[in-house]
Amino acid sequence: MSKNIKLEHPRDQITRIISRIYQRGMTTTSGGNISVIDDNGDIWVTPSAIDKGSLRASDIICVKKDGTVIGKHKPSSEFPFHKAIYEVRPDIKSVIHAHPPALVSFSIVRQIPNTNIISQAKHICGPIGYATYELPGSNKLGEIIAEEFKKGFKAVIMENHGTVLGGTDLTDAFERFETLEFCARTILYGSQIGTPNYLTDSQIDAFEAQNNEMLPEMETTSHPSDEVEKRLSICKIVQRSCQQGLMISSYGTVSMRWKGNDFLITPTDVCRWDMNLEDIVQIKDGKREVGKKPSRATWIHQEIYKRNPNVNSIIMTQSPYLMAFGVTKSYLNVRTIPESWIFLQDIPSVKYGDHFKTNTNSKITENCTTALIIENDSVLITGDKLLQTFDYLEVAEFSAKSIVLGASLGDMVPINDNQVEELRQKFLA
């Protein structure tokens, strides 16, 4: 099963997560810090002024409960506010502080991102606190941040500085951090092409309520070699999606048809970064693998496979530039370059709520297109081979990115209808 982070040494947890944050461009070589408090009350923390791009477990500092410092470096200069948070919130066992670009953008205009921009973020991030500016590394800053955490917040925007987040463990803190930065990016990118639209609390509650039904469990499960091979393919694509910013810890579903209408699908409530073969859920004859919770979108995948025999793999995810179109109701015109249109054709969108089981839009499950945007929720990509489907996702995200970035230069000039017809005749006839 996925990593049991409680059985991983704090120094290994920290180096793994700080590397992930750095590689995803959410902190700099010198910026950001992470800590974990263990059951003894000792705090393990990243060192001061050590390259975050090459941090090793031996670099992590331990500050004992009595204040003794163990390690070959100085603890992070921001250690005071880590310590202050743990003192006021015994439920918090890990803290992440960093300067991710989108959240810093909010901090310097002194705003808090509205997490109702996507369906799951409200519950993952919770309400967001706000800490007024104080000198970095000072006890005063620690006091102000601790006061915000004392109010019950687990995520706090730091004025003209960045953000700090806590969690029940480091995986929980990172999921909150990554989700909040994703919300901020989606709002920023969406603002370049239109006006972001936000979900109401009642819409989010309705989404949560309609996801409670579970498939019955199968009595026994077999894992022949072709099934195991598909599990491996899914895990590789999920990992690749996370590394490339096409998926985040808290959201992303990948499935592959196995035999007939039976398929394999990613689980719910498992960090996408750490997913492994044993986490994947087999769906056979309308039943789920014993003891596992498949993605809450399982029924959508099930219906697509039933109604579209040519579809053998599906990816549902939230990638920031595609979601910029999904949250602004802007039309994503992929007639940007020939390759984009050849792979994707035109990308329709459906309203938020059309993906609920009670009122599914036929565009999602019956009239299945290569790519579809579900407003304020996700993008759905279908294809034959899983690698091909992933390629479609990349092409769609790159096309969306080009349009968002180009918006500051002027209006996009797409290839015209005659040029599209030429492409249709040559590549799709």
From TrEMBL:
Annotated GO MF terms: aldehyde-lyase activity; metal ion binding
Superkingdom, taxonomy of origin: Bacteria
Gene3D superfamilies assigned to the protein according to its UniProt record, in alphabetical order: Class II aldolase/adducin N-terminal domain
GO CC terms: cytosol
GO biological process: pentose catabolic process
Transmembrane segments: none
Entry keyword set: Lyase, Metal-binding
Domain Class II aldolase/adducin N-terminal: 12-188, 232-404
Protein name stated in the entry: Aldolase
